[in-house]
Write a structure and sequence with these properties.
Number of strands: 11
Order of helices and strands: EHEEHEEHEEHEEEHHEH
Structural class: alpha/beta
CATH class: Alpha Beta
CATH topology: Spore Coat Polysaccharide Biosynthesis Protein SpsA, Chain A
Radius of gyration: 17 Å
Low-confidence stretches: none
Distance between the termini: 46 Å
Helix content: 25-40%
Largest sheet: 9 strands, mixed
Number of helices: 7
Mean pLDDT: 90
CATH superfamily: Spore Coat Polysaccharide Biosynthesis Protein SpsA, Chain A
CATH architecture: Alpha-Beta Complex
Number of domains: 1
């Protein structure tokens, strides 16, 4: 197993939207073992039953409680401002990762100009999700939405691979890289903020990498497929990404 660099601390930023049942499982996974020093900043975006936290008092866990709900980027940016980590990871509450392997990702981040690195993301049935993609264009969106062509943009095996952008289910950033682009653009309330931050990083000459030596499991919620509000946010973010409005 690769050892993490001396002095390394990874901040895991998780945002719950009344998803305590999911967060409970993720925190339980962390108790099974993580191969690098870490802390967790859990943001409760809306009030919820916090009883699940009683099971995890031994974890290095800080809980933030919002008076007013914030968007995806705003929540993670707020966590970053108080994070102590040398590295900063955004983690969806629907991620599972028994015996989380951060060391391979940290090793990749030591390479020249690598700003962000993500593990391979699996569905619960073991299928590989297309969590690393090329930047969207109007044609690519049409292919996905109208022609139902949703094959992976990249193929990968055991070696890390440079990609355009990483889906924000689990992404580990170098602290200085995250600071260089001032974190997420908070004008994106939800959706495409992960595409945008990777695009801005790459414009500054940083690299974005997927490293399949580490894996996590994603229990996808797919709310934009069945919730009008989420669909509206998705459409607004798409307009902003292409027009800057």
């Amino acid at each position: 197993m690769t050892a993490s660099p001396s002095g390394t601390l990874v901040t895991l930023s998780v945002v719950s939207h009344g998803q305590g049942a999911l967060v409970r499982h993720f925190l339980a996974d962390l108790r099974q073992g993580v191969d690098a020093p870490f802390e967790v900043i859990l943001t409760l975006n809306i009030p919820e039953d916090e009883a699940f936290l009683d099971e995890h008092r031994g974890l290095p866990l800080l809980v933030l409680r919002n008076r007013v709900p914030k968007g995806f980027g705003a929540n993670h940016n707020a966590a970053f401002r108080i994070a102590r980590g040398t590295h900063f990871a955004i983690v969806n509450p629907d991620i599972r990762a028994q015996r989380l392997r951060l060391a391979p990702l940290l090793e990749t981040l030591e390479q020249r100009r690598v700003a962000a690195c993500a593990p391979q993301v699996l569905a619960p049935d073991g299928r590989v999700e297309d969590s690393a993609r090329r930047f969207p264009t109007a044609w690519r969106l049409l292919r996905r939405l109208l022609l139902r062509r949703r094959g992976p943009d990249y193929r990968w095996g055991g070696d890390p691979v440079d990609v355009d952008w990483l889906a924000g289910m689990f992404v580990l950033f170098r602290r200085d890289a995250y600071e260089a682009v001032s974190g997420f653009d908070e004008r994106y309330f939800m959706y495409l903020e992960d595409v945008d931050i990777c695009r801005r990083l790459k414009r500054l000459g940083w690299r974005v990498v997927l490293d399949s030596r580490s894996t996590v499991v994603h229990f996808a919620q797919r709310r934009s497929h069945r919730d009008v509000r989420h669909l509206r946010w998705h459409l607004r973010s798409t307009l902003r990404y292409f027009t800057g409005i």
